Protein: Gfo/Idh/MocA-like oxidoreductase N-terminal domain-containing protein
Amino acid sequence: MATIAIIGAGIFVRTQYLPRLSEISDLFHLKAIWSRTQESARAAVEIADKNFSGVQCKWGDEGLDDIIRDSSITAVAVVLAGQNQVDISLKMLKAGKHVLQEKPAAASVKDLETALHNYKSISADAPRQVIWSVAENYRFEPALVECKKLVAEIGTMMSVQVIIEGSMNSSNPYFSSSWRRGFTGGFILDMGVHFIAGLRMVVGCEVVSVSAMTSHVDSSLPPPDNISSVFHLENGCSGVFVMVVSSRTPKILWRVVGMNGTLQIERGFQGQHGYLVSLYGVDGQSKSSFFPFSGVTEELKAFISDVSESTLKKGSELVAEPRLSYIEGARDVAVLEAMLESGARKGELVHVKRF
Structure:
């Protein structure tokens, strides 16, 4: 059984990670939770104690070093401010621990390139292969998994639409998050990687170029808070990505129009939390299915499974869950950065960095 530690004790750890991990607590042993401050670490451990026994409270540099030196801890979940995650992840990888890092994979393409270079060096020197995963739960949402299968039924793609009307206002627990406000791209980058991940998964190919316009309308949010982009896929199809960070009418929608029908995924249905998947055929008939949220649990389960099976020695090829790979997370960031760059250049065509 894998023994893991959680690096971070913020809102997402307390409200998402710990409840979801408790659903699969029979698959691993949670040994420690770390935070910069003792107060924050203790608050998270108190929540963990409801479902896990003997969780150690670690904080500060000394606590982080304890986790690094503890050979019984085989994997860590790094759930920190976006600007700090890569450095901590690389430290843990260098110590021989598998890492599940929260999205985004990095703050920029430049940071991604440096991170991948360092990971390659660490892997070359490691006595066994270490896994670096990015926790992108949208790649594990049952609705999007189903859509990946159904998209073949609509035939040749003609158009793709991704419409996001977010609800990032003062009632949202992440609204005051300082690190998200410190990101270039602000909430568009942090939130947007989810929807790009969903796009790439459903269409089954990469975004090669984009042209976008951005604006800053809501002064309570960091710039930009609106983006409208045309994108071109490697399969020859084009589409639009429209994102409003804070809207009075929250909406999340992917829609793919093909020669033989249309596939649509929309968040929420009659007050339920999840996604409604609708397939419209050429005969005018349609069929719809509702899928509750479960992506966070499924991604955590997949990572723990990878860690439990990672017994191969240096030089062996560990086949980890591809949806969790750091490269996939890097590709999501690269698309968003290209859109933001195009917006800064007033719609100039920008080619997406390939990873």
